Amino acid sequence: MDSFDELLGRDEQAIMRLRSLYRQFGYKQYKMSRFEEYELYADNKTFLASGEIITFTGAGGKLMALRPDVTLSIVKNTKDDGKLKKLYYNENVFRHDGNGFKEQTQVGLECIGPIDINLMSEVLALAWRSLEELGGSPRLDISHMGYIGGLLKSVEMTAEQRSELLRRISSKNASELGALCNEYGFGGEFREKITALAALYDHYDDVAAELRRISVNEETDAALCELEELYRLLERSGLGRGINLDFSIVNDLSYYSGIIFHGFLEGIPVKILSGGRYDKLLRKFGNHAGAIGFAVYLDLLERLSPAGNQMISVALPKGRLGEKAYAIFEAAGYGCPDIHEQSRRLVFDSPENGVRYFWVKPSDVAIYVERGAADIGIVGKDILLEYSPDVYELLDLGIGKCRVCVAAEKGFSVTESEHTLRVATKFPNIARDYYGKQGRDIDVIGLNGSIELAPLLGLSDVIVDIVETGKTLLENNLEPIETIVDISARLISNKVSYKFNHEAISKMCSKIAENLSDCFGETFK
C-alpha cells in the first residue's frame, strides 16, 4: 500500500512540511478571500510583482480583483495594537508571468508588530530552513535597502536618476553605472563606491571591510551594524556560510527600508523565495508597527532539475559576432579546438577548460541565459534594451559596435510633423521608451525585415533600426536623423548560475577583461 507521502505531489508534500515548520515557531495560519477591492492593488501597484491584475465587477458595482498578492491583504486587515502577529499562509495568487495570467501557489509567513533583531534572525533562519525542506542545494542572499538608500542620498538626484541607478545595480552593470554617474555629474568618489557596491557578492566577513570603506553616512552605518548583528545571530544558529550579501537585490525604496533577501535552489534558474522588511508599506495604511516576511513560490519546484556537469555553459550568437566573441574566450584561456571544425554541430565541450559552447540565433541568447539553459552568453545591447531579460550584465566586450537610430527620407523633419508619428521598427519597446520620454505619441508598426522600405512606400514616417555604416540607408535615400543609443556586445549571466558558480564566472570575467585589449588593440574600460 502506498504511503501517505507517496500519494501527495511534490508541492503538496512541501506545503505540509513548511506548515509544520512554521507552526513549531508559533506562527498561526491566516486565511483570506480569493479577491479584494481593486483599489487596494491599484494604490500599491509598484509593490506588486506584476502590475497586471484580473478585475471583475462585484455586487453593488464595486470593481474587484482576483488576489495577485497575499501580503497586501494581511497588512490591510492587521490592527495596529502593539501586539506581535506571527502568521503563515498557504494561498494561491493570480499573476501575469509575461505570457499570460497563471494561478500560482505560495506558502509564506509574516511578522507584524514590534520587530527586533532576534525576530529578524528567526525569519531569515526560517527562510533558510524552508529552502532545505524543498530539497536540493540552497542559497540565501541578503541585501539592505537602508544601506543602498543611504548611499544614494549622499548626492542630490531626481527620482528618475535614482530609478536608473537602481536598475543598473540590479543587473551588476558596472560600466553603465559609471557612465550614468558621469552623465549626471556625480563625483568620482560616489561613482567608485556605487559600482563597488553593485559588484559585491560574498559572505559578510569577506566583504565587511569593503562595506565600511563604502559607508558614507549614519544611514549606511546603521544598516551595516544591523547586518553584522544578524550574521552573528545566524552563525550562533549554525547558519551563515551559505548566506551571502548581494546588493544587486534591490526593491522599491518607498516600501522597503531594511533587509531584503532572495532564496535559491540549485537546478531552478530563478529565485524561489523572496522577502524583506517592509515597514514603509504599513505606514501607508496608518500602521506604525514593523513588518517582515517572505513567500515561497512552490510552482517553481516543477522546474527543479538535477545538477549537471560542472562546466560553464556559454551561449554564442551565430555569425560574425559570435566568432569574435569566441576569439575573446579563446584568448582568455577558454579555448575549445573542436569548435573550428567544419560541421553542423551546435554544442562543443572543453572539459579541460571547464567550458561548454553552443551556437544559437542572436536574438535567442538572452532567452537561453535567463531561463538557465546557459550560464552566460554574448548578446547585443539592443536585445537587452528591447526585451529586458532578468540577467546580470557583467561586461561590455566592445565588439559589434553600432547604433540604434531614427532614420527617415532626406528632408523629413520629425519636429515639423504634427500628426501621430508612424514608426516602423523591429524594436517597438525601444521606440516607445525613446518617444515616451519626449512625450510624443507614436504609432508603432512592427516589421521583421526590409525596414527601409516602410518610409519609401508611405507605410511610416520614420524607422527605428540598427545602423552600422549607414550605407544601406544612403542607398535607399534615407538618413539617420537621431541616435537613440550606442550598442555593443555584452557578456550576460543567469542570476542563479552566477550565485552557484560565482568563483568560476568571476574568474572567467576577470581573464576576459584582462585580455580584451590584446585581442582587439582597444583600451578596455
Could you characterize what this model shows?
The protein is α/β, with parallel strands linked by helices and 525 residues long. It contains 20 helices and 22 strands. Helix 5 crosses helix 11 and helix 13 crosses helix 20. The longest helix is centred in the middle third of the chain and has 19 residues. The radius of gyration is 25 Å and the shape is globular.
Instruction: Give me the number of helical elements.
Output: 20
Strand content: 25-35%
Number of strands: 22
Sequence of strands across the biggest β-sheet: 1-5-6-11-10-9-7-8
Shape: globular
Percentage of helical residues? 25-40%
Low-pLDDT stretches? none
Compute the average pLDDT. 90
Main beta sheet, described? 8 strands, mixed
Helices and strands: which structural class?
alpha/beta
Rg, alpha carbons? 25 Å
**N→C terminal distance:** 66 Å
Give me some keywords for this one.
single chain, 22 strands, 525 residues
Quick rundown:
With 525 residues, the chain is α/β, with parallel strands linked by helices.
Ordered list of secondary-structure elements with their pairings:
Blueprint: H1 4-7, H2 10-24, E1 28-29, E2 35-37, H3 38-42, E3 55-57, E4 63-66, H4 71-76, E5 85-96, E6 101-113, H5 117-134, E7 138-144, H6 145-152, H7 159-170, H8 174-184, H9 188-199, H10 204-214, H11 218-236, E8 243-245, E9 259-265, E10 273-277, H12 279-284, E11 290-297, E12 312-317, H13 320-331, E13 347-350, E14 355-360, H14 365-370, E15 376-380, H15 381-387, E16 391-396, E17 402-409, E18 421-425, H16 428-436, E19 442-446, H17 453-456, E20 462-467, H18 471-475, E21 478-487, E22 489-494, H19 495-500, H20 502-520
Parallel strand pairs: 1-5, 7-8, 12-14, 12-15, 18-19, 18-20
Antiparallel strand pairs: 2-4, 3-4, 5-6, 6-11, 7-9, 9-10, 10-11, 13-14, 15-22, 16-22, 17-20, 17-21
